[in-house]
Amino acid sequence: MADRRKTPRNTLEFKVWGRYALFTDPLTRVGGEKCSYHLPTYEALKGICKSIYWKPTLIWHVDQVRLMRRIRTQARGMKPLEYTSGGNTLAIYTYLTGDARSKNLLDITDGPGVEYQVRAHFEWNEHRPALEQDRVEGKHFSIAQRSLERGGRQDIFLGTRDCQGYVTPCEFGSGVSDYDNDGPLDYALMFHSFSYPDETGTSRLGTNFWRPKLENGVLTFPRPDDTDQIVHKDIRAMPFKAFGESHNMQSVSSEFEHLQAETGSLVEAAE
Amino acid sequence: MSWLQRLVETYDACFGKSAYVKLALTPINHVEQQAHLEITLDKDGEFLRASVVPKEATLIPATEASAGRTSGPVAHPLCDKLRYVAKDYGSNDHELYRSALDAWVKYSEHPKLKAIKSYVAKGTTVHDLVAAGIVVMQSDGTLESAWNDGPSPLAKLLTADPKTKLRDQGNALVRWKVELAGSLQHSVWEDTELQKSWAEFHTTLPAEEGFSLYEGENRPLALSHPKRLRHGGDGAKLISSNDSGGFTFRGRFMSAKEAYGLSAEATQKAHNALRWLIARQGYRNGDQVIVAWSVQHVTRIPLLADSRALLGEEDEDVEEGYAECSPPSITPENSAGDVGQEYALRLKSAMQGYRSHIGDSDNIVVMSLDAATPGRMAIVYYRELTGSELLARIERWHSLLAWQQNFGKDHHFVGAPAPRDIAEAAYGRRVDDKLRRATVERLLPCIVDGTPLPRDLVLSCVQRATNRIGMERWEFERVLGIACSLYRGSHPQEFPSMSLDEARTSRDYLYGRLLAVADNIESMALSIAREPRETNAARFTQRFADHPYTTWRTLELQLRPYIARLNGSRYVGALKLRQQLLDRIYSSFETVNGESTFLDNRRLSGEFLLGFHSQREALRPSRDAASATTTTQTDVEGDTE
């Protein structure tokens, strides 16, 4: 486990791995023959952070990702459903995977697959003044740490729902990566993230793109609002989803009181 | 680093280069179509002559809409079908053609364009063609289309309407020649100035702008993306978006346009480059296409060839572009030593030859495409690596899998088999097309990434080589060589030499050798008696592999009459040597835990094939009597001769 004293009080460092990953290139996604980018996208990693722990009070920012295994791909024949006409079509999806580190086929951690180390931190969502009283750093940090130690609150998946992943705490930069001595590597324009209204404060949906640069296997992400590195594409109007106490959230203490009123005798009996 | 970027780079690097004249890259905003008619004009737009053009692909300028036209009328701006070009054909389509051409002429004052414009304006095209005897008119003044008396030379080139069976002469595509004074370049389809002018004019045409995923900024977007990538009739697209009902993008996005956009320029360049690369140097296997190229200067890279082709010993494919990277030929003088050494030397010098054409830091792209449905194509493999990396991997593959291959009478070589042959060896000659594709697909990372060979493939080959009853002799020989290759390749470092390793004492290897000697003795006896039948050793191979110890007992008993037969013949010397060899092999078996491994009756691994093959090669009289072999078997061979 990572040394808590060393990391800032809002930073999460973890290892995520899985048999396959599919960070679909939008060019191939629309046609239906999904082909993965070679690198994980910011949005996919942010989603993993959110699966570990999330509350509308906070926004996860992915700082860095480190590729641990050499990039390999594997194409698999698929039978996607036709939702409108019924039946199915045929397609070939190209997933990311990697070489096994262990010869034991039952060893899911070191078997063939992808493995990344991620460093992310959370910031308060300033567009939610209604949740201001929930901005308690230590609380959210501790819950996030505890969730991570238990493998996350929700299912973890790498890019696409069919690529189940697993998380565990780790120290970012520890261990040996296949890319340790590879030097810099430039990539072409790639999807970075979505701009949702509840994080930007505007009522528009947008997509962000960037030109990644891999440095010894480490990718340092720009923030979604970094106009130097991010190319923004506006998509369309989208309403802002409101959260607030009294409206669709409840404080823990009032929840507790509520529970106690309902099952008061049981709680006392348990004590 | 993305396939799109690399393809556009390749286009920019290779377009218009004189080295690729014979099969040139299509310029953007042009399509290749088959012209049927050629009309020659003078500089003032007067009709000079016309002729029928036999099947010949012609490059004609096109807008995006006209390039993708199907049943709706859209005109190409310069060369089009007669129904568009000729006013007196009487079709409304002519107005579309006129306006497209006029707009271009307004932009560019090219003399050829002006001549064509003034000729078209006269509206006498059909009349002139009838006068020239090319277009046939019926007595009632309409154009012939039924051809009851047999089609004219022009009509023969046209395809008949599948429903009405009529051949409409209005569907003949017209191309122009303009004879200008002082110019030798008459044809419009080869005029690079016109091509340039069209490209410039095209950028001024109104187009829908949007965010392009290639440039990362707003550009004129492509309405649709090209097809016909793998061959002329290929309808599969790499980028498509016709799924408005499913959930490929719906949910977060309302339309495909929101989900992605790509500039017309980028998509055309990328697709033209890909189509060109596939035609020029693609490896095609049914629907599957694998292409490897260097971005800086397009060189052919023999990725999926067997070692013979790699070493340039096959000269079937020598044509434009190939010669540039053919390896130096190897003279017999420097081919001393055993086959393995000689092969290693030749491989080394061949790779040296490739290295002189592919720079160490060149960007090499390996891309594989496949289609599960007729309409869409998927990128199933994409890898970028440097020239030195790729050549090292190819060299590794060919030295790792090197073995004596026996593909038929005049088809012996030392080296690695091609992936396609491996698929046939593993699954039989009538292997399903899909399985063959999948096998090549699985072997591609073994070559390019250096990943281990798929275990099931190795086992399957070994299994088939063991079960030789079901195969003709030549097929067995072929599968045996490939199985040995694969087994050797899946156990790197274990078999450093390709020839017989007398010091090797593993049970499986020795049992393989025993079988080879028994086979040899028996076939010697059979050939004396002129009995052309299979040896017991051959027939028992499968059982021998499953239960070596008990089967060997049977084989040895059956060998006795043959030994007796040979004892009485002039081959008695050779027999003695073989019997000594058998004794030497017996005594080589190790003793583990107080028991000889010879008594171990468990199933043999693929290694026994290696022992069998090496021993058999060593016993065989050398093919080239002049070259002395350095193996220890020289004395044995000397006696058999």
Overview of the structural elements:
Chain A is an alpha+beta fold and 271 residues long. Chain A has 5 helices and 13 strands. In chain A, the strands form 3 sheets. Chain A has an 8-stranded antiparallel sheet. In chain A, strands 9-10-13 form a 3-stranded antiparallel sheet. In chain A, strand 11 (213-215) and strand 12 form a beta hairpin. Chain A is globular and about 55 Å long. Chain A starts with 10 loop residues before the first strand and ends with a helix. Residues 1-5 of chain A have low confidence and may be disordered. With 641 residues, chain B is an alpha+beta fold. Chain B is 43% helix and 11% strand. Chain B has helices spanning 3-14, 64-67, 82-85, 93-107, 111-122, 125-131, 153-157, 192-204, 256-259, 264-281, 307-310, 339-355, 387-400, 419-427, 433-448, 455-466, 473-490, 507-528, 536-539, 541-546, 548-567, 572-588, 607-619, 634-640, and strands spanning 30-34, 37-42, 47-52, 57-61, 174-179, 209-211, 218-220, 283-285, 288-294, 363-370, 378-386, 403-406, 412-415, 591-592, 595-596. In chain B, the strands form 6 sheets. In chain B, strands 8-9-10-11 form a 4-stranded antiparallel sheet, with helices on both faces. The longest helix of chain B has 22 residues, at 507-528. Chain B starts with a helix and ends with a helix. Residues 315-337 and 624-641 of chain B have low confidence and may be disordered. At the A-B interface, helix 1, strand 3, strand 4 and strand 13 of A face helix 9 and strand 11 of B.
